[in-house]
Amino acid sequence: MAGTIISGVIFGLVALVMFGIGISQLKSKDPVGFYTGEKPPEKESLSDVNTWNKKHGTMWVIYGVCLVCSWICSAFIGDSFYSGIPLVVGVLAPIVIMVICHHILVKKYILTE
What we know:
Layout (H helix, E strand, L loop, with lengths): L1 H26 L21 H29 L6 H26 L4
């Protein structure tokens, strides 16, 4: 039971960080980046900065929700090998989906000359 509580606190804190990233991107007036160290695109190179930021921010908020939901599923399964499956899927699958969505957004919103 202590392990479940500790993991819940950790997953909750990480989810709060993801919510914070998402909310800051949703409210940003300047274009946001996706990858750590990635330079955000210039305003002039985006067809719609507001939509770009909203879609990226929404991805991060949804990722935070996925983290919480995966922990809840794991907690319901209990202390067994199978309780790790929702945790792994809830952490890794959304990242892959987010990267794919980011590349789709790049193709859709970044203007090419």
